[in-house]
Each structure stands twice: as structure tokens, then as C-alpha cells.
Structure to design on (147 residues):
């Protein structure tokens, strides 16, 4: 979540960092956060993220839930097969359509993901631009490498 810092004449954005999210994670029981998110039947937010950023999931889920969301992540979805199949794609497609919002966790790992572009395309089609958001996370607050 970008924050404005400094002189208003020379506005600088300060992005959420990995350390910010890790700080939130230290206050949480990560497995409990993931398990609770998986148990909730009604989901309002589809969280698209790289599996390389899974360590950030509990903190991101907590932030989104503190803002009224009920977050879907695929990690604990018992409906998903063990290996990726067309059934996997269909389950994710239907879940994206059912959720009111989509949030894409964007980091330096995003460009390596095969799933994020596909999920974002579905979200763009099903949600309109008002219901799709990017959540950029960077290593250092002054970085903009996520762009």
C-alpha cells in the first residue's frame, strides 16, 4: 500500500516492503491464518500471487481481512487436484468469477509466474477495473522494481 512521504512539492511513494509484511507475520500464527481463510465458505477476494511469495500470504490475508475481505487462496483448497489439470483451471476460473474482488500481489517474482497473467486476464474480464487491485510489495521502500 503506497504511502506518501516527504515534501508535498516533491511527493515520493513509499511501498509496502517484504519486511513490513514479515513484521505482520511475526505477530501471527501463519498456519492458523491460512487454515481459517481456507475454512470460510464465502469468499469475497481472490488473492493472486506467485508461489515464491507464499511466505507473505498470512500478512496479506490479514491486511485484506482487516479491510473487510474474505480471502481465497489456493494453498489449502481441498478441491484442487494434486497435479495441475484442466479441473484445476476450471476450479480457479469459477472461484475468480464468484469472488467480488481480485487482488494481485505484485513482487519481483510475479514476472516468473505462469498463473498470475492467466488469473489476471480472467479477473479483468469478470470484475471490471474497479474490482481488480494491485498490491505491490518491494524489497526496499524506495524501489519500484515491481513495475
Amino acid at each position: 500500500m503506497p504511502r506518501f512521504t516527504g515534501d508535498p512539492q516533491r511527493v515520493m511513494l513509499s511501498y509496502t516492503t517484504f519486511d513490513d509484511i514479515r513484521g505482520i507475520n511475526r505477530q501471527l500464527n501463519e498456519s492458523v491464518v491460512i487454515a481459517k481463510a481456507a475454512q470460510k465458505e464465502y469468499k469475497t477476494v481472490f488473492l493472486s500471487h506467485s508461489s515464491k511469495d507464499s511466505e507473505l500470504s498470512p500478512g496479506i490475508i490479514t491486511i485484506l481481512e482487516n479491510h473487510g475481505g474474505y480471502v481465497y487462496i489456493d494453498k489449502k483448497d481441498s478441491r484442487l487436484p494434486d497435479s495441475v489439470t484442466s479441473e484445476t483451471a476450471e476450479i480457479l476460473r469459477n472461484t475468480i468469477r464468484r469472488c467480488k474482488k481480485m487482488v494481485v500481489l505484485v513482487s519481483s517474482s510475479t514476472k516468473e509466474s505462469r498463473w498470475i497473467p492467466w488469473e489476471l486476464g480472467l479477473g479483468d474480464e469478470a470484475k471490471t477495473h474497479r474490482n481488480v487491485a494491485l498490491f505491490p510489495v518491494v524489497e526496499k521502500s524506495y524501489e519500484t522494481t515491481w513495475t
